[in-house]
Amino acid sequence: MRLLFVLPEYPPDHGGGIATVYGALLPELVRLGHDVHAVVGSAYVSGRASFEDHGVTVSYLEPERYHRLLPAYSRYAAMPVLQRHLAAARAMWEQTDGGAGFDRVEVVEWGLLFAPWICAESPPSLVRLHGSSGQISEYDTMPGEEGAEQVIRIIETALLPHAAALSTSSRINAAYWEERLGRQTAIVPPPLPPSAPLSTKGQGTTAFVAGRLQEWKGPRVLADALRLLGDGAPVVEWAGRAVMQPRTGVAYDRYLATEYADIWNRKLIHLGQISPAEVQRRQREAKLVIIPSLWDVYNLTAVEAMARGSLVVCSDGAGAADIMEDGVNGFVFRAGDARALADATLRALDLSSSERKAIIMSAAETVREQLDPARIAALVSAELIQATAVGHAPVSLTGAVAPGEVVPKDAHLARLPLRDLIVHAAGRIRTKLSQSIRS
Fold this sequence. Notes:
Elements: E1 2-7, H1 17-31, E2 35-40, E3 51-53, E4 56-60, H2 63-69, H3 80-95, E5 104-108, H4 115-119, E6 125-129, H5 133-139, H6 146-159, E7 165-168, H7 171-181, E8 186-187, E9 207-210, H8 219-229, E10 236-239, H9 252-259, E11 268-272, H10 276-285, E12 288-291, H11 300-307, E13 312-315, E14 331-333, H12 338-349, H13 353-370, H14 373-386, H15 395-398, H16 418-438
Parallel strand pairs: 1-2, 1-5, 2-4, 5-6, 6-7, 7-8, 9-10, 9-12, 10-11, 12-13, 13-14
Antiparallel strand pairs: 3-4
Helix pairs in contact: 1-14, 2-3, 5-6, 8-12, 11-13
């Protein structure tokens, strides 16, 4: 079959797990005999040179097309993030001529990229649910974006029931969408490329976490668990950039330094963003790899660590817990429960060397068997072959995501009280001047 994948990222670029998944999956689909193409882009990614790698033809969103479409969504100028998402999604649909000439299309839901493929004439299209913009905003609300985030969630919940097919990587995410959409969501786990030779040494004394420092990745649960463990707590190194703390609007590392002064940079050390190679090294050498997430569609770092010979303690809020059996190939604890994380950490630290090695070997074997890229590609291929229906949203919904008449971008400002506009403008000017002086 001739397959088109509509993605926000693809190797060599890595913004998150989506690039890792498709970088492993698409070459395997080529090996199965499919003609595989990917168009890559979003409101934040466009204009890079096309290339071919391992038989996969990769092109990028054309920035001129995207910018030409932005005014067609000017009715959402008061919500710039929504305007940009819709313009990028439509531009990618138009750039590929609505998928003309392709037998099947797979599109991700992040950034509303799926919307045109349900609302306009397209080939049979499968929407793969990796973690939508609206879903993520439930856990990490951005100050000032609350209205746009709510509208994005409404659009997702209104349109996704009309997709031809839905699939995701974990039971927890399938349950999330089935509850909201009232329809079944298939489950196919992510592929994981073979890693370097297994190491069972774990010579280090520190524990390790890899992921953005943000609310739903569970840093507060981890800090509370370290407090409970007291002197028996391991030092935990956290690698990943800090994002904004939703309730306070300050960077998450600054928030933790204030709220957990007894823990921060003593038992919980923030390394900032480090290279993928350095993440791998630290995973192999760590005494434990901890996944404290309140929620994660999957969390590839968990299974990457399992494949590399790490002893993993994982929250059941992360989809990776699907392939873990507590005490057999890792340790699983209840999401958001600091006491449960403390107890699981103690159990892992108290293992004998032979018990530790047995669990690590079992974890690596589990990953090799269940996440083998060739196996996952065969499952995805079967999904796409069976996706013969065409998704159609009713006309009453399509207008919300279709291009429209251009309106003045500041038209919504005319509805606001002049006093509020003046006060806001003055505040913005003071902030800009203050930033300029500090720099």
